[in-house]
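Pasting as-is:
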Amino acid sequence: MAFLQVVKLAFALLALTTPSWAVGVAPGQIKNFVTFGDSYTDSSYYPTADGGYAWPTWAAMYGDLNLYGFARSGATCSNLLTYRPFPPIMGWQLPAYLNETRNGTLELNPDETIYTIWIGTNDLGVNALLTGSDAPDTSIVQVRQCTVDVLKILYESGARNFIMQNILPLDLTILYSNYSYPNRYWDLERNTTGWNVYMKELVRAGNEITSLMLEALVPALPGAHIASFDSYGLFTDMYNNPQNYFNGTAPYNVTGCINSCVHTMNSTAAPTCTVANGTDADSFLWYDELHPSQQSDRIVAREMTAVMMGEDNQWTTWLS
């Protein structure tokens, strides 16, 4: 009897320390996905900011999923924190989604639908945290709290399945690199090394803050399935190991871009632009000085599709 009691105690302790079998989504469960974010995710036009199709368009094809895209180029999480004249998640994208669900235009089964949130590039960048926003008291903590609040509002509206994509390593983009040049996004004087260091710290701090906030939020959202997708890790690996990801006819290129335009400071002269054409483009990590390439977006789509299909994925951690 004593032996049986020990076994029962051992199994009871194991149950307390072992993750629930209900963590994540089941294979074949998800039929629809709804996206919120900026130009990295905006699938509402073509060609998109990567020169082709945004990753959600590829994911919808790869997984035979129904896509409902609310992400819009230029967006921040909230224009009250980092103002830009584009549709933010809080002020436009989320209200547009909620309006469609409330008036019956959009009817989605919560069990069969997953919501993706990928925002932060514009919050952290030029004319925002990096150079100073219109709300000078805004901090990285507030803009990342805004991102988590998006998930909370969606949950309160009935959503139950989520993927939070963290911020990719913006310091590796041409715009924020230490070897940057005057370009279409910023053609004024700047300290490229200073920008590179500051952006690196903003991204790392923002991702860690988001991770801690999500972990703290999970117990307050019963029945939710929340995945943390490591965009930072994926793009860092693509940067360090391009041979594993790119298959173009040009040499691998992670420090240049497909569509490069070098501007001249304090001048009205036309920029000097170069474009990689055809299959050469599939050798590049970046499309232009800020945006991922079409090949990079196909890779994001491949990995995100695996998550939505309930498959194991090395870049994803299910928190609930």
